[in-house]
Amino acid sequence: MAEAPKFEEGLAALEKLVADLEQGDLGLDEALKRFEKGVKLAGQLQGALDQSQRKVEQLASGKLENFGDEPAGGADEAPKKAPKKKSGDSPSLF
């Protein structure tokens, strides 16, 4: 799978899509394709911003958690695994 683009690269791509649409010289089909691509890209960028905001809030409050990039204790600490379920365990909603 291809690596996700950096936030700045995604933002630049979105700005290009918007500029292309604002020119008004695209056909309807091409304009719709670019608009759809822009909406998806904007959603991905908003998700990245939301995740960054949560991370900043937790760092500011002193609560360090694993955000998927590296373990909370640093790069050398292995991630903790969830305990294995026993066959007799009832399902949990949490």
What characteristics describe this protein?
2 helices; single chain; 94 residues; 0% strand
Question: What would a concise description of this structure say?
Answer:
The protein is an all-alpha fold and 94 residues long. The protein is built from 2 helices and no strands. Helix content is 54%, strand content 0%.
Helix content: 40-55%
Shape: rod-shaped
Count of DSSP helices? 2
Q: How large is the share of residues in beta strands?
A: under 5%
Spans where pLDDT lies below 50 across 5 or more residues: 71-94
Rg, Cα atoms, Å: 21 Å
Classify the secondary structure makeup into a structural class.
Answer: mainly alpha
Number of DSSP-assigned strands: 0
String of helices and strands: HH
Largest sheet: none
Rounded mean pLDDT score: 76
Distance between the termini: 30 Å
Protein architecture, described:
This protein is rod-shaped. Helix 1 runs antiparallel to helix 2 (28-61). The chain is an all-alpha fold. It has a domain at 7-61. Mean pLDDT is 76; it is low at 71-94. It has helices at residues 7-23, 28-61. It contains 2 helices and no strands.
What's the helix and strand layout?
Layout: H1 7-23, H2 28-61
Helix pairs in contact: 1-2
